[in-house]
Amino acid sequence: MPRQELEYPREPFSTGNRYSSRGSHALETIHRIVNTSPLIHVAFNDPNSPFPAVLPMIGQMGSFDRPSADLGDVLELYLHGYVSSRIINLTRNPPTPEGLPLTISASHVDGLVLALTPNSHSLNYRSAILFGHATLVTSVPEKLYAMELITNSIVPSRWEHTRVPPNAAEMQSTSVLRVKIATGSAKIRSGMPHDERGDMEDEELMKRVWTGVVPIHTVMGGPVAGPYNGVGDVPEYLERWRIEENKEAEVFAREQLKE
């Protein structure tokens, strides 16, 4: 039997109204966008500030209790930060029993969509937003799981190719937040420009203005050895990942040209 696709509950604050056809509440879609974002932005309220705070952070969706769970399963978001940072301190005395309320956003830009008029210009993009409550991870095994998960999200297999486990001072200076997700949504735009019929019937305008898409994808440059690097060649796991990642990124950006 085909597996049923799980979705987050639809709430008024998590459901988009404009271009609703681009929206999705599917767990797999949302989790994939978050897990492939080099940075995610975490918003929270600080009682000592008149403005909401937003931090760029590194995080990853996963499940300590079910390590083999895939992106379509119910997952939690792990974030790491310095032990005395503002968000960590607020989590120690959260305003709600569930934890510190957070809003998390992640996005990718896959292309510049150039149309006949400025108002019809757009981007090919993938964006996701999550709403949840953060609590501190106090279990050492879960903390190590999260640290390995986040490290390997930057470069696969990097954890095992470094000095691990972290020493006592490193463990003490690093805190990990576990965010239990309440709901979330995604929005995706792909394809070519879409212009007004009147403009497309203007032959002079059609001949004068170039329209189309400029694909965008991240390129990993060749590794540059640090000043105290003692390893002769770039490790095979790192170079293989870099080459494959570059190829996949370009292919994906071009696939986003399709409607």
CATH architecture annotation name: Roll
Give the C-level CATH assignment. Answer: Mainly Beta
Please tell me how large the radius of gyration is. 21 Å
The portion of residues forming beta strands comes to: 25-35%
The best one-word shape is: globular
Percentage of residues assigned to helices: 25-40%
Mean pLDDT reading: 95
Count of alpha/pi helices: 7
**Helix-strand topology string:** EHEEEEHEEHHEHHEH
CATH superfamily: Electron Transport, Fmn-binding Protein, Chain A
**What class would the helix/strand composition place it in?**
alpha+beta
End-to-end gap? 29 Å
Instruction: Identify low-pLDDT runs.
Output: none
Number of strands: 9
Under CATH, the topology can be stated as Pnp Oxidase, Chain A
Q: How many discrete structural domains? A: 1
Largest sheet: 9 strands, antiparallel
Protein name: Flavin-nucleotide-binding protein
InterPro entries: Pyridox_Oxase-rel, Split_barrel_FMN-bd
Pfam family, one: Pyridox_ox_2
Organism: Immersiella caudata
Task: Explain the layout of strands and helices.
Blueprint: E1 23-24, H1 27-35, E2 40-44, E3 53-57, E4 59-62, E5 76-82, H2 86-92, E6 100-114, E7 122-136, H3 140-154, H4 168-173, E8 174-189, H5 197-200, H6 203-208, E9 212-215, H7 236-255
What would your notes on this structure say?
The protein has 7 helices and 9 strands. With 259 residues, the protein is of the alpha+beta class. It has one domain (12-255): Roll (Pnp Oxidase, Chain A). Strands 1, 2, 3, 4, 5, 6, 7, 8 and 9 form a 9-stranded antiparallel beta sheet that branches. The protein is globular. The protein starts with 22 loop residues before the first strand and ends with a helix. The mean pLDDT is 95. This is Flavin-nucleotide-binding protein. It comes from Immersiella caudata. Residues 1-10 have a biased composition (Basic and acidic residues). Pfam families: Pyridox_ox_2.
